[in-house]
């Protein structure tokens, strides 16, 4: 089951981060709780999430109109979700730029260049294998497991919500540290999974919609036995933040990261709400002719990442009837 590839990106980028010398545990140690399907305490995230001073943004995020109404199967909300999916595609393009800029903050050993090389490869593969695949999923007919969005619907301007969020990412990529640039992931990875799990367990959630398939179900893990749980990407991010906090601790940085956390949740809500805004068609074309949309590709998940999922024991964590239903589940975030 594949939703927006936003969720794929952090698991593998955080995996690379966790093996950087002097920046926390190695992969085997940091991911032991995930391999054994254990639930570790979300120490860093819980401190931010449960802070009474942050409840205004947490509640607004968890009860945003788009997710709540689309989960119920509201027709207007489902159409809004399609517009949101277009903006999420634009966000992913801007996210790719963020990852390029973030690379400059990577702490690494000058004599162990393989870590730098791995992170660079992770960045480069994200463009086609994640951004391109989300476009493919968007334009694929609903009868074939896609969202059924007309390619012409991408010929629109970015919403103010998307622009604001992307600029926040890019500005922080130029000014924040490596650890803070992972705090910035809490909203769209851990937070998404938190909402999805809540909606999955809600009785009046309509399980027949594209929103349930491509957003709710895609953002949680459903083991063959047992209860649904937070997505592996959310758990991996939490492990990374917990284990590396001591290397990046200071009173000033703690205050700054709380500001980042609050702003990220506000921007997430703004992007959700922008799905109800009127779209503005582009009035100009790219130099040399009309706008050319991305060419659909095979939509496979890279071999290295399939191997990593198997290493974590996550291959069996999806419903078997999800296989290939949206074109990418021989291997999803």
Secondary-structure blueprint:
Layout: H1 8-18, H2 27-30, H3 32-35, H4 43-49, H5 55-62, H6 65-71, H7 75-102, H8 113-139, H9 160-175, H10 180-183, H11 186-200, H12 210-216, E1 220-221, E2 229-230, H13 232-244, H14 251-273, H15 303-311
Antiparallel strand pairs: 1-2
Region (Disordered): 314-333
GO biological process, one term: thiamine metabolic process
Protein name: Thiaminase-2/PQQC domain-containing protein
Structure commentary:
The protein has a two-stranded antiparallel ribbon. A hairpin with a 7-residue loop joins strand 1 and strand 2 (229-230). It contains 15 helices and two strands. It has helices at residues 8-18, 27-30, 32-35, 43-49, 55-62, 65-71, 75-102, 113-139, 160-175, 180-183, 186-200, 210-216, 232-244, 251-273, 303-311, and strands spanning 220-221, 229-230. It has a single domain (5-322), classed as Heme Oxygenase, Chain A. The model is unreliable at 1-5, 7-31, 33-37 and 298-333 (pLDDT under 50). It has 333 residues and is mainly alpha-helical. Helix 1 runs antiparallel to helix 8 and helix 1 (8-18) runs parallel beside helix 13. It is 55% helix and 1% strand.
What's the total helix number? Answer: 15
In angstroms, what is the radius of gyration? 19 Å
Tell me the CATH topology.
Answer: Heme Oxygenase, Chain A
Mean model confidence by pLDDT: 78
Query: H/E element string?
Result: HHHHHHHHHHHHEEHHH
CATH architecture label: Up-down Bundle
Structural shape: globular
Unreliable spans are 1-5, 7-31, 33-37, 298-333
CATH level-1 class: Mainly Alpha
Query: Termini, distance in Å?
Result: 10 Å
- How many structurally independent domains? 1
In the CATH hierarchy, what is the superfamily?
A: Heme oxygenase-like
Largest sheet: 2 strands, antiparallel
């Amino acid at each position: 089951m594949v939703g927006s590839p936003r969720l794929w990106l952090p698991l593998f980028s955080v995996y690379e981060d966790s093996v950087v010398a002097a920046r926390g545990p190695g992969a085997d140690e940091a991911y032991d709780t995930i391999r054994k399907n254990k639930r570790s305490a979300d120490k860093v995230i819980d401190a931010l999430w449960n802070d009474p001073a942050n409840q205004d943004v947490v509640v607004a995020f968890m009860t945003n109109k788009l997710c709540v109404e689309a989960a119920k199967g509201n027709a207007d909300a489902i159409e809004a979700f399609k517009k949101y999916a277009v903006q999420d595609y634009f966000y992913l393009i801007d996210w790719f730029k963020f990852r390029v800029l973030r690379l400059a903050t990577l702490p690494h050993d000058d004599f162990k260049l393989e870590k730098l090389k791995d992170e660079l490869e992770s960045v480069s593969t994200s463009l086609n294998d994640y951004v391109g695949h989300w476009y493919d999923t968007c334009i694929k007919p609903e009868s074939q497991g896609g969202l059924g969005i007309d390619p012409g619907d991408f010929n629109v301007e970015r919403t103010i919500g998307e622009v604001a969020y992307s600029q926040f990412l890019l500005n922080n990529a130029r000014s924040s540290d490596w650890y803070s640039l992972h705090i910035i992931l809490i909203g769209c990875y851990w937070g998404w999974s938190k909402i999805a799990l809540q909606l999955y367990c809600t009785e009046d959630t309509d399980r027949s919609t594209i929103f349930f398939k491509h957003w709710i179900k895609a953002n949680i893990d459903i083991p063959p036995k047992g209860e649904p749980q937070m997505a592996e990407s959310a758990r991996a991010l939490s492990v990374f933040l917990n284990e590396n906090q001591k290397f990046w601790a200071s009173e000033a940085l703690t205050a700054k990261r709380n500001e980042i956390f609050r702003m990220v949740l506000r921007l997430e809500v703004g992007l959700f709400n922008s799905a109800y805004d009127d779209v503005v068609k582009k009035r100009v074309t790219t130099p040399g002719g009309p706008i050319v949309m991305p060419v659909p590709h095979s939509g496979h998940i890279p071999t290295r990442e399939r191997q990593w999922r198997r290493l974590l024991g996550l291959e069996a964590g999806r419903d078997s009837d999800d296989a290939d239903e949206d074109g990418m589940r021989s291997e999803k975030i």
